[in-house]
Structure formats: structure tokens, C-alpha cells
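Lecture 7 notes: from sequence to structure.
We start with the chain below.
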Amino acid sequence: MRTGPFPGSIIMTGIPSGVDILADPQHLLKSSDQLTVTIQDIGALSNHAISEPESCKIMPCNY
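Predicted C-alpha cells for the same chain:
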């Protein structure tokens, strides 16, 4: 019997907004930071963080 993830599954990671604000020192993402997620026997996905446009800070943007 196969267990997930199944083809087409969405894998989401992270923590609720603001949790790391309480850390000392804070570990906040900066523009151009590289994030890599690796899943054994599947592979790795890397992305670079980008700054949120000023207009999205006033009204949420839909990406």
C-alpha cells in the first residue's frame, strides 16, 4: 500500500506569520536569500526571496 505524497500533492512548509519576531536574534528573510527544500528520494527545490512591493504593504497583492 502506497503512502503519500501522491503525484500532484502540494507540500507546504512554514510557520505562522510573526512567530520569528519573538526570536533573539531574529531570523528574518532578506531579499535575495536562497531557500531550499529537499525531500529524500524526490529532489530539491530552490527559490530566492524577493522584497514585497510597497503597494502590497497597503493592500494585499494576489500573486
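Points to note: The beta strands are 34-39, 43-48. Residues 54-58 form the longest helix (5 residues).
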